[in-house]
Amino acid sequence: MTFYITVAISIAISSIAVLGTFMLTGMNGLFSLGQAAFMGLGAYATAILVVNYGLPFPLAILIAIALAISLAFFVGYATLRIRQDFFALATFGFGQAMIALLTETVTITGGAMGFSNIPRLTSPALAFISLAIAIFFVWGFRRSHFGKDSLAIRSNELAAEVEGINAFKHKMIVFVISAGFAAYAGALMAFHISYVEPATYGWILSVTWIIIVFFGGRDSLTGTVIGAIILLAAPEALRFTTAWRILVYCVIILLIINLRPRGLFGTWEISLKPFLRFFKSKKQQEAK
Amino acid sequence: MGVPMQFSIILQQVVNGLSLGAVYALIAVGFALIFNVLKFSNFAHGGVLGISAYAGYIAANQFKLPLIPVILVGMVTGAILAVLVELIAFRWIRLQKGQLVYFFVTSVTMLMLLEQVLIIRFGASFESYPYTLVKVRVLQFGDVTISVTYLLSLISTIIAFSGLIYVLKKTKIGIAIRAASNDLTATSLMGINVNMVIIAAFIVSGMLGGLSGVLYGISASLSPQIGQIVVKGFIASVLGGLGSLTGVAVAAVVLGVLEVFLISTIGSGLSPVVIFLLMVVFLLVRPHGFAGVSFSDKA
Amino acid sequence: MEKAIVIDMKNLTKKFGGLCAVNDFTGHVKENQIIGIIGPNGAGKTTILNMVSGIYPPTQGEIIFKGKDISKLAPFQINHLGIARTFQNIRLFQEMTVLETIMTAYSWRAPYHFLETFVSLPRVARFEKETKEKCLHWIEKVGLGNEAHSITQSLPYGMQRRVEIARALASEPTVLLLDEPGAGLNQSEIHDLVDLIQGLFTELSLSIMLIDHRMDVIMRLCEWIYVQDFGKNISQGTPEQIQKDPIVIKAYLGEEIINA
């Protein structure tokens, strides 16, 4: 595998997790500082199930996602009813607790040294198709009433409740989905780079995803995907050290939020309508 | 030995917990002060704290300054930095009447940025304040050995809070800050210059942050990630019930004692897990914090 | 024929800490009837509405809606039963068009599961299309036909008020709670609004609970009026009775009438 394909696969996988953050933080204004921990959980659970217990890769992925979803439900149940600060706090605590657990359970996870020799089962096709499907999922969700409900709750939760939206349930659905996305991305990543270590999945990674979403535009799916590709590819191209890279990210996001708060793409979306219209007119012609 | 030994260990632990709690209280109150005025969680406070801690370290290590000037360097750095953060990250959003999420994003971004500055300058290694900064390291009371750096944290916190209470209750600017905490728009209607009040709040918060950074640096050690202890302030101010500075300080001290206790029993590795579980249980039982003030949205 | 009672409020009391916002309020709304609650600021009018719409439960007392105690239900559950409301300080959604805003009122009726949206099943799109048509109808009804695709916040205040009313109507309620619909409007806007409410009332045979401190609005619309002062009910009756009631005049109306 050439270097470029390896990098492209990493970007595609990370973008799946970013899409989860797009739904949670972009669409719904909920800040999860433990989002990366779900990715870590997905990575470790899948790796351990496959390497230590010999489970097939797809089954292991499903179990890992189920695990992430259950934990998200637990964290969300305690905090999604109350102020958003509590949610940010609880997810942060969750992230730290998760990393502590992964580090402490040395016999299972390899502790701080990480878990290695994971077979490279993530093929380029699997990564790219997964990303395409993830984008399609988010696109469909957003275009349904859930998309409008998200904006309504983000903007005025009380008014949304009064007109019949169960805000708690809605936020729970979104949180659980986003955790599932992160866990899936984690599973793919572990079997791509063949190695996991707890320190990767700290809150900085969660914040990086949030930054990517706000960079592209929290109201633009197109912007989020393009933003993810740009910001995830840039460091590989520029070969900065990690610290400088994050520093540059920070400066960019400060500039964007100050000068163009709605992100590079605002609410702009690539539209498939011209294509659809083309097909429709063809159909009509055939009907005639 | 036996029983008295046990007792002295417990007593030592309590003192350790109290002094850690005192530093947490400084962090938490600095954090809550900004929350009360601007109603967002200012994570950048951690960055301010971190840089100030290193400023104090440079003052002590390279310029060989004695203790009190070192603390002052930390506080002044904190104040200046806090104002810079307000100007760079928050002011423009506020003028544009931006939504709260933007403040959240810029504040977290600021924390990350300041942390990276430290990593770039000092690398990922640990540093510590020169040993000579505090000349007498321990005091012996019979069986009980108390670390002077811990006492220093406790005493400095008490002095700082006395000063804070004086400023908030007796000075014009302090009263304006309290008024702004109640209702920022009303404050501006009363003809008070809101920008000045906010700058003042950031100065006070930055000084508290700088002090907590230096104290934490002296009693523990320094690493570029030091800013992340702002989370202790965050936990304490949420659990303490946002809005009440006293509640926040009490919660911070409880958190400090709890942490020292957990570390001595189950170790530092697993203590975040227990703290997280306790936090979730607490939120389920008391969704609005110790103070129990419910922020019901007025329709 | 005697009209049936739709909402029965029995001995409602609401305390915030030591403050008693509403003290032992009893009243009811009948089928196809407009009732009003008047009183100066701080009289506890909005608190009554907040309790009925489930924003907070009463400290004491109960609210019976069509024979069912709703006093402990959440706002969205109360909405599902058929009670919708507007807010005094308009609460619209930022960055959404009028149509999108109103469409959210139908969200809870959606027949599909969120997993179906992932694969964009046809019935997801069908529901959205049907909802859109219904909402355009409501937008027309409140006289905002030309503004369906405007961003709500770009509209003038009077129109925003109408968007709120349309959003409440889109819940297809039997009872409509209007919290100071006239607040912030000028005289001619109020006049139009009263006509609009009157029209909707007749056409949709709604029950309406209206709060306002403006006499003209209340007197023109309401069949029965409750007068609140410092959380207490000091009088009730028809508009004519209220206008003559010496207690009311002394407590509240006096200055209003002089000012008017």
Notes on the structure:
The complex is a heterotrimer of chains A (288), B (299) and C (260). Chain A has 288 residues and is mainly alpha-helical. Chain A has a single domain, classed as ABC transporter involved in vitamin B12 uptake, BtuC. Chain A contains 13 helices and 2 strands, in the order H-H-H-H-H-E-H-H-H-H-E-H-H-H-H. A two-stranded antiparallel ribbon of chain A has the order 1-2. The longest helix of chain A has 27 residues, at 167-193. Chain A is globular. Chain B is mainly α and 299 residues long. Chain B has a single domain, classed as ABC transporter involved in vitamin B12 uptake, BtuC, CATH 1.10.3470. Chain B is built from 11 helices and 2 strands. Chain B has helices at 3-38, 44-61, 67-95, 100-122, 148-170, 172-182, 184-189, 194-219, 230-239, 245-266, 271-285, and strands at residues 138-141, 144-147. A two-stranded antiparallel ribbon of chain B has the order 1-2. The longest helix of chain B is centred in the N-terminal third of the chain and has 36 residues, at 3-38. Chain C has helices at 45-52, 75-81, 98-103, 114-118, 122-141, 157-169, 187-204, 215-221, 239-244, 246-259; strands spanning 5-16, 19-30, 34-38, 60-65, 68-69, 83-85, 175-179, 207-211, 224-229, 232-237. The mean pLDDT of chain C is 90. Chain C has 10 helices and 10 strands. Helices cover 40% and strands 24% of the residues of chain C. Chain C is globular. Chain C has 260 residues and is an alpha/beta fold. Chain C folds into 2 domains: 5-82 and 173-259, 3-Layer(aba) Sandwich (Rossmann fold), CATH 3.40.50.300; 92-160, no CATH class. The chains are: A mainly alpha (288), B mainly alpha (299), C alpha/beta (260). Chains in contact: A-B, A-C, B-C. The interface between A and B is large, with 46 and 44 residues.
Give a concise summary.
The complex is a heterotrimer of chains A (288), B (299) and C (260). Chain A has 288 residues and is mainly α.
Produce the secondary structure layout.
The complex is a heterotrimer of chains A (288), B (299) and C (260).
Chain A: H1 3-27, H2 35-51, H3 57-79, H4 84-104, H5 106-109, E1 115-116, H6 124-143, H7 145-155, H8 157-162, H9 167-193, E2 195-196, H10 203-216, H11 221-238, H12 242-259, H13 273-287
Antiparallel strand pairs in A: 1-2
Helix pairs in contact in A: 1-6, 1-9, 1-10, 1-11, 2-3, 2-4, 2-9, 3-4, 3-9, 10-11, 10-12
Chain B: H1 3-38, H2 44-61, H3 67-95, H4 100-122, E1 138-141, E2 144-147, H5 148-170, H6 172-182, H7 184-189, H8 194-219, H9 230-239, H10 245-266, H11 271-285
Antiparallel strand pairs in B: 1-2
Helix pairs in contact in B: 1-5, 1-6, 1-8, 1-9, 1-10, 2-3, 2-4, 2-8, 3-4, 3-8, 5-6, 5-8, 6-8, 9-10
Chain C: E1 5-16, E2 19-30, E3 34-38, H1 45-52, E4 60-65, E5 68-69, H2 75-81, E6 83-85, H3 98-103, H4 114-118, H5 122-141, H6 157-169, E7 175-179, H7 187-204, E8 207-211, H8 215-221, E9 224-229, E10 232-237, H9 239-244, H10 246-259
